Amino acid sequence: MSFRGAVVTFPGSNCDRDMAVALEAVSGVPAIRVWHGDAELPANLDFIALPGGFSYGDYLRSGAMAARSTVMQSVIEAARRGVPVLGVCNGFQVLTEAGLLPGALMRNASQHFICRNVKLKVENSQSLFTAGYSAGQILNIPVAHHDGNYFADDATLDRLEGEGRVAFRYAETVNGSARDIAGVLNEAGNVLGMMPHPERAIEEALGSSDGRALFESAIRSLVEA
Amino acid sequence: MSQITPEIVAEHGLSKDEYAIILDRLGREPNLVELGIFSVMWSEHCSYKSSRLHLKKLPTQAPWVICGPGENAGVIDIGEGPDGKGQAAIFKMESHNHPSYIEPYQGAATGVGGILRDVFTMGARPVANLNALRFGRPDHPKMKHLVSGVVAGIGGYGNCVGVPTVGGETNFHKAYDGNILVNAMTVGVADTDKIFYSAATGVGNPIVYVGSKTGRDGIHGATMASADFGENSEEKRPTVQVGDPFTEKLLIEACLELMATDAIVAIQDMGAAGLTSSSVEMASKGGAGIRLNMNKVPCREEGMTPYEMMLSESQERMLMVLKPGKEPMAEAIFRKWELDFAVIGEVTDTGHMVLEFNGEVVCDIPLGPLADDAPEYDRPSLSREDYQAWAKPGEVGEVPASADLGADLLKLMGSADLASRAWIWQQYDSQVGGDTLQLSGGDAAVVRVHGTHKALAMSTDCTPRYCYADPYEGGKQAIAEAYRNISAVGGTPLAVTNCLNFANPERPEIMAQFTGCLAGMGDACRALDFPIVSGNVSLYNESKATGGGSAILPTPAIGGVGLLDDYSKMATIAFKKEGDAIWLIGGETGHLGQSLWLRELHGREAGAPPPVDLAAERKHGEEVRALIKAQAVTAVHDISDGGLLVTLAEMALAGGIGAQLDMELDVAKAFGEDQGRYVVTAPAGVEIPAAQRIGTVGGSSVAGASLQALREANESFFKDWMEG
Amino acid sequence: MKVRIHVSLKPGVLDPQGRAIHHALEGLGFEGVNDVRAGREIELDVDDSVSDEALDAMCKQLLANMVIENYRIERVTA
Questions:
Q1: Which one of A151, B120, B346, B635 has the largest count of C-beta atoms within 10 Å of its C-beta?
Q2: Interface of A with C in 37-96 (CB under 8 A)
């Protein structure tokens, strides 16, 4: 079978090309580009990525307006059908605003934009996105965000932890996130939102290739399925 | 009855003599719209009236230069792209000094937006931003606010548009207390067969306005940018424009989408002086005329007059000439990106700029006097000797020996000018685009040309204290250092852009700084085959706010661009391996004049700056590039501010390994800032020709200072200042 | 008519912006400021016919993020 991965572009997305490059580098198949105003997604998608950037300028709240754009209704339906959906950075913000993931991403505790490589700990290595890692493994992956401070109420946090839905945790102080959470899964495990950018860590020339295994395990699980 | 009183003329920043020329060229009195247009076009910012004469002397040619100064940005050939088509790098640096002092966040943000537009206007996708910043004393009461605001503004804009901010420089000096410098540079990449110029041609072709709507922002910003600050610069706040990076991002994508078709005849961004300068420049470059219907200009506010529309500096707008019949296709692209699109006029053959509003002609000016024939001044200047007598750099004289070189090194590494800039550059998205190979902190930033093995090396450089002490040598040094930084990563230096920041040119000593620096730059560019392809001049950088006539240091900021054919052979500054041999290229002479050591340890800015031997500079650069290409060296760093020990300390900190030195060190050898020098490391046993073996990589200290102490000193300055 | 929507963080949600403002006010020497919470105001110009229910829905669906924010609707009579 031929892998069918799509990258959604919202007005103001700016990591959409990077995400498409990463998907193609790992799968060998060019990614399908989807425009936010499209009423429907292409048929039979294997994978949907919501990229980083500043959709709608981050005006109102990061991800808020993109979460209500035309194409998102189709993304939500696809996620409910079990299609894997990865949201990185602004894509994570869109997923929480769209209600596909719990919690919210607030302004960094430092009030500053932060761009640097951080140490990231793999908490759950059983999901389709993280099966290529071992639990407790420390990754070197960049962050680049202003609003990455993860918030959810204690009951929600306890539930996420209890259900193994914390995929990644920062292994250093980064942005003030509750319990240092960097990435969370939905209940079914087919939707992952994370602030760090695995698509920026797919080759050593860029400083790290630790992000590659995330795409590899997602694609492998699809091919094997 | 005359509308135009002497007061109105003066308010528009025009001299009596200049007004007399307007009367002569028009053969009548101008109306207010016309006067406003003249005032903008004849401002220093747009007309370069004090500098044009001297800029003409700079070398601008080389076989690889596709387009030199005069267009929106410079263009150089960088070989074939992934599809085998020719590619070009397009780049420019520009100042946004005055607006950034008044409102640091928006001033810096719109500076980034403006320079981005200069580059994508020509058909390039922007791939890198850099910025050269000069601030006053860190303990000046306004400085923390200015630094935080400028850094946040640069990040706020650049991060949102998705162009990585990869390099630059930041200096502190009391001469900038009342007048900071914010110089932004953008580098883009285009196909050589898709480069767009600004000359409007084709009588009857439609003139199209795209982007944001026009509001009353920054009316008279261009004239403000060329006036001294008064004591009440805070009151000027309303003339600062507000940037919208989201719209800019859409504008980039929409313009590049339209540029992929064959619809565009000419295109120009609306920068300072907005619709006025863009329409005048397009029409005069094309040798044509222009007619605009002001009722068609998309406006944000009701009741705007033609005067306001022509002088507005609203951001994120462009003007284009399209081929006839292409309007519907172009409009569909801009509507898709939710941007305004309006046909507002046409190209004519009259040689005049004619504006109509409500069916009446409100402006009719011949284009000649507005552009090519604008005033040009040969301002008086001091001779080199008279300048030296005025500047009094003094002699270095006897310097005390240092009791502890390691302690001096620690102090230098923790000083404002040498401290780690991580606090700044971590606020910039340096990686978006997925092609950033090397960042600020090394010698030059390196960004891969997408989909190829090539990479662009970029560096901004200038040492203003050298330029003040000796403008000619300082001008040479700024070019030489850019050449050196690009060579140090393995790039072949190709061309430069510049941003010439000086004080009031009506003072002969300031003109001496300007002409001296330019002469030095010109000689260095010629000797190094490193032509100037674009630039910007910012004059009147002095402020009465700090107590009368305080001029900035002469600051001709240089933005150099070079090319690596194969990025896998790129060099970095970090020590790689214990046991590697450390080599010095360029010798040890120990010039302490104008050194940071003298300033930071002894509070003296004295002596002549280190002279630049351009032949040696070129020779050492070529040697270093050959070593990198042959993969004979494991690390490379040029020697600049702070001298040899600072260079070694930076290499050690980057690699987490110390240096064991075999050479006898004294203060002059340790901290002298002689030019044309590099430190390289090579595996043990590899001989580096024409270099001096000075030590071995290893241990956990440099000249007696432990790495841990060096790191703490280096990292604490910004942390303590900003978070303390 | 004009409608003002006041959006504020729910009690208990950490407000780094408010904290930074608080810190800055103290730095300027203002005493007696016990807490600062930053919110935002959105002004709508709507037909008189737009119902309270519709305004409420606008807030819930877009203008406020119900995970972390509360809102208050104020109709401003001209």
A1: B120
A2: 60-61, 64-65, 68, 96
